[in-house]
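Query structure, 298 tokens:
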């Protein structure tokens, strides 16, 4: 979580203001955060340049809301990470999962939290369970990008996600994925700039369900309405028209017709990064498997 977000979260006085006062105040905070974010990235890229992987990543995040750092981990390292993730699946209480129904938040004794749909599962909080996972996502490049983005050295909250068409034989998720996906509707996650990343554990192509982002959508006025409404809801105000977390049908139609889509296809070992103000969704898996290790910054 960014330093600015942590500070704003403590502005409890906003809840006591009339909405007609809170509305422009929250809009001003969003604008100020955006300007300061652009300044930080501009200053950083002027100092270190745009040709190295850190400068290039920051510049692309500013311009599109999305970037990929290739081969941040070697193939051998990725194999070990994937093996350890699957080992955590092996230890799950299968009797509480093998129901074919949604499991929204199963908390395990070791602190892991499990979210499950048919053919798709998330293990949340892997960085808490052992030293192996604790070291992941703490390389210099990722830490530096996070520092510029969030003005803090917060370490990632790790979430392993696997989705499959029946080809991944495991008792935790024996059934294939249906048409529903966890985070499968177009949505916006944050009002202020915040980063999310995922480490690709197997090659991702259009067939096995990449994340889809709408290029530079965070700068569209119709999506800025969502940013403001998320903020209003955070401070317990009734949102304005136009939707908050979810992008409504009218806006989705505009995005589909007018805005370029980015399919976050990538190779094993790549690191995908996106700005959470960007409109995005998890696309439906067609064939194969998708194994990702997400970095959340809380």
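Result returned for the query:
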């Amino acid at each position: 979580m960014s330093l600015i977000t942590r500070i704003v979260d403590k502005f409890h006085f906003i809840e006591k203001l009339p909405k007609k006062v809170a509305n422009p105040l929250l809009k001003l905070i969003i604008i100020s955060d955006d300007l300061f974010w652009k300044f930080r990235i501009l200053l950083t890229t002027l100092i270190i340049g745009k040709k190295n992987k850190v400068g290039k990543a920051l510049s692309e995040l500013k311009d599109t809301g999305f970037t990929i750092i290739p081969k941040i981990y070697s193939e051998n390292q990725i194999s070990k990470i994937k093996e350890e993730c699957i080992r955590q699946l092996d230890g799950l209480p299968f009797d509480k999962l093998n129901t074919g129904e949604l499991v929204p938040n199963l908390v395990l004794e070791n602190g892991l939290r499990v979210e499950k749909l048919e053919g798709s599962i998330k293990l949340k909080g892997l960085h808490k369970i052992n030293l192996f996972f604790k070291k992941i996502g703490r390389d210099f490049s990722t830490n530096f990008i996070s520092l510029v983005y969030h003005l803090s050295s917060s370490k990632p909250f790790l979430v392993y996600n696997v989705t499959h068409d029946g080809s991944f034989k495991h008792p935790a998720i024996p059934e294939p994925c249906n048409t529903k996906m966890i985070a499968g509707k177009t949505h916006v996650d944050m009002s202020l700039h915040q980063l999310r990343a995922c480490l690709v554990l197997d090659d991702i192509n259009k067939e096995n369900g990449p994340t889809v982002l709408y290029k530079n959508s965070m700068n569209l006025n119709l999506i800025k309405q969502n940013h403001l409404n998320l903020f209003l809801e955070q401070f317990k105000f009734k949102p304005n028209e136009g939707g908050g977390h979810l992008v409504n049908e009218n806006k989705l139609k505009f995005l589909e017709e007018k805005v370029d889509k980015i399919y976050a296809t990538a190779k094993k070992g790549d690191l995908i990064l996106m700005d959470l103000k960007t409109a995005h969704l998890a696309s439906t898996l067609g064939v194969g498997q998708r194994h990702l290790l997400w970095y959340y910054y809380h």
